[in-house]
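Usage

Read records sequentially. Each one opens with the input sequence:
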Amino acid sequence: MSRAVNDTASFEALIAHVIPEALVGLLTVAGVFVMLFRINARLALFTLVPIPFIILGFVGYNRVVRPLFRHAQSRLGDLNAVLQDNISGMREIQVFAQEDRELESVARRVMGYSTSVTRAVSTSACFHGAIDFFAGLGTVFVVLFGGLMALKGQVSIADITGFLLYVSLFYEPIMGLNKLNESLQQALASSDRYFEVLDREPDIEDAPGAAELGRVKGRITYEGVSFDYDGTPVLSNINLDIRPGEMIALVGPTGVGKTTMANLIPRFYDPTEGRVLIDGVDLRTVTTASLHRNVSMVLQDVFLFNGTVAENIAYGSPGATREQIVAAATAAGADEFIREMPQGYDTPIGERGVRLSGGQKQRLAIARALLYDAPVLILDEATSAVDTETEAKIASALEHLTEGRTTIVIAHRLSTIRRADRIIVLDEGEIVEQGTHEQLMAVGGLYAKLVNADANETGGRVAAAFAPGR
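and closes with the structure output:
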């Protein structure tokens, strides 16, 4: 965020101020230099004596000061990150009584940024003084050698007087460039950080000649799929064929790769080995934009934008009518609480939906995915924050809306899992069981053990063993 806001603001100074003013200064120096040579070439050469030292000063300034400003910008980024965390996590800070700790953390970063800026500015001032000193020597040389030449009758007093006026015009833009160089180095340091982001290659890119994917039927196939995070295996040799319109539930212990397996469908990642196909087409051969038009998702961590309720529901479908928005909200069990809000569907919900409860945010996310009306729907713990009564309200609607739509559900609630056409049980990154609830209970394997253990402890929920996967 600091690179996108602060660094681009500094970069704007380069384009709007530094470059135009530098061009004007250089043109002024060149024009005045021509006039100096026309008046007296010998004195003009004396005027140029300090120029090599000034150039060396500029070069040294650029090499020494620019890294210091870059470091200062980096410290500002750290400060902004901590401030953002403190604002977003204000309740957690208060609950755990960590105000003093966070105050010290912010103070350390403020002092770090202040120290970095002070070091950069003070070093810059030293170079400014040195360059201004050399620029002043030009005038001293003209007065000294011009006076000697006047005593010998080689130049008139009038020429020396005019020459001195032009010398002041000659060094004035040079000293201006000296001061401008500070802004230039700040802008270049910021542009270095900004272009580091722009030059970063995305993890997932469209292959050359990637085809546009039309509306799919929804058949999803995993062929020998393996995946690892930084060398740590997560999925191993997954082979699975999901029929169009089929509802699949992915269950298993924490960290077995349920979410990772689902995230391969919208191609948030590419498999380390094997391939994922949709309607028989390898996902890596189609454009990601056309693929995403065929996939709706409700993630574990719901993200809502700082806008109205209606704007958030229609985020993926900007052309949706109010009637379509209301229908989607009704199907997700959200219409009732929305109408109780001060402005109904036009109520602002604040940044990240701060004015809504967890259950309300998830129901809006479900409504948003339903309105998007993609043939493939992924629900990653989509009902985790919805109470039993609300879940019952949306159960029949979900059953109706999943007709003709391939649905992949990651859930720990038994009521959600039982509705699936097929349950896929993962353990240590591999598929160890699959079938309906009744079939898996009859087998008496891992699924049955987890369900029975959960029933004894919670009376109906699949417990922590069925917590969200990676």
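Summary fields computed downstream for this record:
- The chain has 16 helices and ten strands.
- The longest strand covers residues 232-242.
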